[in-house]
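Could you help me review a protein record that somebody else here produced? Here is the record exactly as it was handed to me:
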Amino acid sequence: MYPGIMVTAWVFKSVLDFFNFDVDLRTICIYIPPLFSSFTTLITYGVTKELIGGLDSDCRTEKNYKISVNSKGAGLLAASFISINPGLILRTMAGNFDNENVAIFFMLLTFYFWIKSIKSGHVFYAIWAAISLGLMACSWGGYVYVYNLIPLHVFVNYFIGKFNRKTYVAYSTFYILSVLIIMQVPFIGFSPVVQSTHLPGFIVFVLCQILAFFRSSRRYLNDKIKYDVMRKSAAKMVGFLVTGTIILAAILSFFSDHISNSKLFSNSYLAKFYALINPIYAKIHAPIHHSVSENQPSAWSSFYFDLQLLLLLFPVGIWVTLRKINGYNSLLLVFGVTSMFFASSMNRLILILAPAMCISSGIGISYFLMLFTGELNILAIFSRKHRRKLVDSLKIAKNKLRGAKETTIHTNRREIASVAVIVVTYFLWSYNTHCNWVAQEAYSTTNVMIGHGKYHADDFREGFNWLRMNTEENSKVISWWDHGYRIRVIANRTSIVDNNTWNYTHIGMVGNMFAENEKKSAKMMRDLDVDYVYLVFGGALGYDKDDLNKLPWMLKLADASGFKKKVEDYVPGYFTDIGNSCTKKLRDSVIYKLSYYRFFQVKTKSDEPAGFDRVRMQKVPNRAVGRLVEFEEAYTSKNWLVRIYKVKKRNNRGFV
């Protein structure tokens, strides 16, 4: 467990206690996410300003470009974009006390000090960059991305001819200190020096030392021929290393099926990392990882939902940066491309893509606004000097109005600029409206309540409250793994599996219990001393994230755990047919019986008969589930969203 988020709460609690502010720890945990969201907004301004620090002066001197990019304006726009971005709001809502709250801030803080270090060549900034990465490593496993992104940035700088002494000093200091600091995190330990996920940083560090050695040896080798021979030998050696690495990667990819079953990927952390690089691996070999919706590849709708206008402005900002690329703003190119790839591979990593999108979009929109407002002379409204120039130019234009071709061209440019500013303003307004709508409709409700606006279904809390008030304290509850944590925390009852269950075979066993018939399932539950079964059923309310829709993943995990379950035997073609033509195994399964027990009596829609499932859009046959033998209905919530059953105990038999 990463201690960063908990240590952060303790630090705030200690500071407030020192100044005699009586704030309980729970309140601090609630407000830490939005607080660090504000910090992220501020550091986004700093990172953008540092990235464009050279463009606002350099581009003004170019003959082909009349307008520059204002670094402060771009920073303000980027900060404005990220302050209301849904991708960040999703993870930084009040009460969402999670690792990503502080990790994203420390990621951008690392970038800020890294840019400062390679611009100045000062060790001071490199040290703070390493400390920032260490703080991120304390908070989130995503530190590996930043740990590998910075050496990739150094590698790219070498190929574009921007590698210099400042970059060498900054990276050498950063790498050594970051490894030492990260190794102090108990959960990580010696991973930076023993796991392959950290290897790119070491490779680039070695290459930097080799490159620095040959560049410094030029001073001591008077014979140019000897130096050329040594340089060519070094180039061949590096070429062999790169070629060998490519060949090894190809071999690993070709034998991926055998490698994935080997001890190399028995570590779940390595399996998650490999699934991020190759999403097909997760689909085949890591079903528990792929079963989580936020770990699946992102759809285009997800990108538009969380980014909207930024998708159009992102390439513009990259283009503006590439016009005058240097050793530090090339970080935006590396950051943007890699974050886009990983966000496409995993939906939850849109959180990493959002800062890159906001920074690049801030640069792009700043360029457009500077370009068009320069034609309109808007500054004349606020400055007496510019106002006089505007009046003089209008007088000259009036005198040359008849037959003056240049004046006509100037007038057209002003009209085009006026329309362009209006269009840009409209797009900015639409982005603000979209972000407010997403925050209000999608991200403003708690995870234990369903609905929005005036109507909310509170069935989850009602079910947890029933468990807490009507069951024994030592009762054991079985459910699918994504309900286990709430059962343990809110209902205060023991759950068989939960979100922190690392034994995937154990989760597969639970999936097998839900897929088995009533008699076999009840026997396995009694062997685990299970007292109650907690089930989420959305057929009455139209909640499509219920347990019956998760049956294919239960079957995949059960099959991967050795229970020989096939999805085709239950839901052919991944279509859950619950009517008269459903498969016998599905009809006999516990999850089907416990979901549809007495459901044929329920009227869910006015224009449909009783027993109509609003998720599967089918009617359940009358008496599809008869009398339960091994289970007893204990509780059904108001909207039939939560169903709790008691496992019947076998009577003790005396001696004959």
User: Anything to note?
Assistant: Strands lie at 476-478, 494-495, 532-536, 612-613, 618-619, 631-636, 642-647. The first helix runs from residue 4 to 18.
